[in-house]
Amino acid sequence: MGDALKLLVIATALALAAAGPALGQVAMTGQLTASKACPAYQSFRNGTNPGGVTLQPGQAYPILGKNKDQASHYLIRVDSASPAERWVEISCGNLGAGSQAAAPSRSDSANPSHVLALGWEPTFCLGHGGKAECARETAQSFEATHLSLHGLWPQPRGNAYCGVDPALKQTDLAHDWSRLPEPDLSGATRQKLAAAMPGTLSGLERHEWIVHGTCFGGAADGYFSRAAGLAEQVNASTVRDVFAAHIGATLSADDVRAAFDKAFGAGAGERVTVNCQGRGAAREISEIVVALVGDVAGAAPLGDLIRTAAPQQRGCPSGFVPAAR
To answer: What pTM value is reported for the model?
Structure first.
């Protein structure tokens, strides 16, 4: 990684770190009844409290989550505040009867399935030039020659928004991602994610956590560290090489699948779907979707996870690989 890119990643990570509150790492349902007038923080790490909001003793607040299993803070909703999602210390109130952690929903916890979605950012930016990540993209950008992390999604499709407050779900469905709480990530994970997922500049990680990460199990830091790590493995392989070699040219799905076979073992390519946008000569590769089955949350090698999955549809037969503009 060049010095300029390192500086850009660090600057992005620092900017994101100051952006706002973190969604509860363990989703919860129920209510918290305030026992004292505690400050209600947008970000308890930074001590930010827009509007100087404090809890009203005796008032009950919907509880959305806690920062970890052995919590120091609860995430609640204060309807009169903006933003409404606020952090308070656990000593500020009492949990109501029935308040509990909301367990993630998985179709098969013994053999969970996921898909890893990796996008070709120059294709995305053809139609989203106003996005911050597209405005800054150049031919020298990391994502101009590497696949970008879109998401790591527990399956089956529809396994989403696990334990998420309905109000936050509606905010996400309205694509108002700037109002979604920011996942609580370590500096190392945030830096890793900023490189793997350019969309963090537009709040993509907030959307991905609330929709998919809440169904993954565990904390956001582990979820995003693993997702970014899987993307790094693909980009360190011949898969990235075949994309880079075809910038400005047409790439076939068969060649993409052959690259996966070479990188991750015979049969891996059959578990990969190639998605395109447009039709005919104007068709461009937009994303590859890789099926995974097994200990995705652990340390299982990517090749093992891919080859354990069922074969998938090939998708579009070929597409143009545009260069960054």
So the answer is: 0.71
